[in-house]
Amino acid sequence: MNRLFLIKRSGTVILTVAVIAILIYILADSYIDARYAADPVNREFFEKLTVALLFTVFISGMFAMIRVMRRLDTQAKERDEKYRTYINNSPDPIIVCDRTGRITESNFAMERLSGYSGAELASMTVQQMWADESVKQGYAALAKMLTTDSLDVTLKYLKKDGADYYLSCHAVRVGERFLVMCRDMTSYVIMDSHIRQIHDELKEKVEEELKKRHRQEQLIENQKKMADMSKLLSAIAHQWRQPLNILSLYNIDLNDTYRAGGLDDKYMDNYNAVVSSTIEKMSDIIDDFRLFFVPEKTDTQFCVTTEILDVLSILQAQMNYLGITIELRCICDRQHYVCRNVTTCPDCAYRSAYARGEQDRFRHVILNIIYNSIDAISEKSAVQTGHKGRIVISVACIHDKVRIVIADNGIGIAPEIKDKVFEPYFSTKAEGKGAGIGLFMSGMIIKEQMKGDIELAGTEEGAEAVITLPAVPVSPQ
């Protein structure tokens, strides 16, 4: 291509010089004829001299032009040789094609990768090398190359033996042809395919594990409900024990009075009043427990102190039976007030102790922690005769947080396991006595549903659970 350009340019220069020489000769001859019109000898001499000079200059110019052409031709050959060397020694496949896609040149890397010889490639088009699934994309890329004079695309090709491979092609326009520099992407495409396959498999496994976890969580929650039901029945039994004893005693007294003939209207009125009052009290106990365990799935604002007092009200009889002292303290203005009823409590910071969440789940958390304290106190009483159990619940508002501390004087908790107590199925109780799901569920409710935090740590007297919740600044109505 460079040689042809040099030949064309040299021919143009020679023709131009010849035209200029002819014009100079015509002008010089006219001048000599006018100057030496009366002197034919000098006129002929100067005419021949002019021709000789012009011929000498023309020949000298020709020789100079030939030397320049030879030098340029040598330089063009060197550039072509370097171009061929660079192309052929490139580790990446390279082809040169025209606007129709016909291959005019290729390097050794392309020949090795495709399996075709240079002569075979020179008789082919790039379209013949595409795999079927890349034909549509290939024609679109070819059209783009013709309009933008550049191209960047990755296509699937077929080797001579039918095997497929992938090339990332970058094309640039060079004159009337396109230089297409390629990069073998087969290993990357295969790796990407494997990665996608692994990703899909992992995605399926993750989805399956999530389903298993969901089923496991449902199982854990059902187990927790069964455990709560057991505790509920125990609490009901303790709450009903006294009214049942009263009914039993009055039944015996009624029988004895009947045998003694002492039944009269006054006795029967008193008997009916006591029995009716006792039955009504037992009905109220059932209502309290029914309302306590009614699921409330709505996300509402509630008074933390009121909910804790509701829990304590259903546990009071059981605490008395077990000999455990339990109380609620509101920390207001750095003073501790024993709270038994929110309507009679002093006007202190507890009135700002409002949180947001599901009330029934929060009550279950408090109930579960208290039952853990009861178990810890029972373990300590078993090894320490005369031990008096005590549970103290403190509620305080600190800036925008509600802090609840449930402390007991039970057996305590070892530092090395305090971070494990919120894991599922982790329990320090003897086998068969603890499922290890209560604190796990409590942690999930406080951290995930109520956006708070819960910690368990040992103290000098026993252990304490610290619950921190975002405060909702709403006063009771």
Q: Taking Cα atoms only, what radius of gyration do you get, to the nearest Å?
A: 52 Å
**Widest sheet: strand order?**
8-7-10-11-13-12
Task: Tally the beta strands.
Answer: 13
Share in β-strands: 15-25%
Query: What's the CATH class of the largest domain, please?
Result: Alpha Beta
The overall pLDDT average reads: 78
How many helices?
Answer: 10
Can you describe what's shown?
It is a single chain. The chain has helices at 2-35, 40-89, 108-114, 118-122, 135-148, 186-260, 265-292, 304-322, 359-383, 438-449, and strands spanning 94-97, 103-106, 150-158, 164-174, 177-184, 300-303, 325-332, 335-338, 354-357, 390-398, 401-408, 453-458, 463-470. It has 4 domains: 2-88; 92-184, PAS domain (Beta-Lactamase), CATH 3.30.450.20; 197-276; 295-470, Histidine kinase-like ATPase, C-terminal domain (Heat Shock Protein 90, 2-Layer Sandwich), CATH 3.30.565.10. A hairpin with a 2-residue loop joins β10 (390-398) and β11. With 477 residues, it is an alpha+beta fold. The model is unreliable at 430-435 (pLDDT under 50). The chain starts with a helix and ends in a 7-residue tail after the last strand. It has 10 helices and 13 strands. The strands form 3 sheets. A 6-stranded mixed β-sheet has the order 8-7-10-11-13-12. It has a 5-stranded antiparallel β-sheet with strand order 2-1-5-4-3, sandwiched between helices. Strands 6-9 form a two-stranded antiparallel ribbon. The longest helix has 75 residues, at 186-260.
Short description:
With 477 residues, the protein is of the alpha+beta class. It has helices at 2-35, 40-89, 108-114, 118-122, 135-148, 186-260, 265-292, 304-322, 359-383, 438-449; strands at 94-97, 103-106, 150-158, 164-174, 177-184, 300-303, 325-332, 335-338, 354-357, 390-398, 401-408, 453-458, 463-470.
